């Protein structure tokens, strides 16, 4: 039995924006197990040059990601939506173990099943080295 993860498709502007904000809030917890619950058991990902399938692989990927991307803070914005698909632009900031700060910009394409679980995520991301004084994101937005 699959549990629904509202909002469910087909999306309206309001429900797509809620889905994006829910994703931002979840990712800012930096809890791989919590984040993975938004994806179907067989969800397919492309993240930069990494391809993976399934929740277990997502948890493993996110665990490694947040072990190296310290003080991670993310902002996501709705770009477009249609039916069961949402396009998102985002940026996040983090520092590495050497203390170098990074701002990462990207776009994501999401596809959902009828239960509101993401079945496909494709992310293209570029990184820019920044100084600590150049930071714009100083933690998650207050949860709505």
UniProtKB/TrEMBL annotation:
Give the matching Gene3D superfamilies.
3.10.450.50
**A Pfam family that the UniProt record links to this protein:** DUF1348
Q: Which InterPro entries match?
A: DUF1348, NTF2-like_dom_sf
Q: What's the superkingdom here?
A: Bacteria
**Residue stretches spanning the membrane:** none
Q: What is this protein called?
A: Nuclear transport factor 2 family protein
């Amino acid at each position: 039995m699959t549990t629904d993860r509202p909002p469910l498709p087909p999306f309206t502007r309001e429900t797509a924006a809620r889905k994006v904000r829910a994703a931002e809030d979840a990712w800012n917890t930096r809890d791989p197990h919590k984040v993975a619950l938004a994806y179907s058991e067989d969800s397919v990902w492309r993240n930069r040059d990494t391809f993976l399938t399934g929740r277990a692989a997502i948890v493993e990927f996110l665990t490694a990601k947040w072990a190296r991307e310290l003080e991670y803070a993310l902002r996501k914005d709705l770009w477009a939506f249609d039916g069961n698909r949402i396009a998102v632009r985002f940026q996040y900031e983090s520092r590495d173990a050497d203390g170098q700060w990074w701002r990462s910009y990207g776009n994501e394409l999401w596809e959902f099943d009828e239960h509101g679980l993401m079945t496909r995520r494709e992310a293209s991301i570029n990184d820019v080295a920044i100084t600590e004084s150049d930071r714009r994101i100083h933690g998650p937005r207050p949860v709505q």
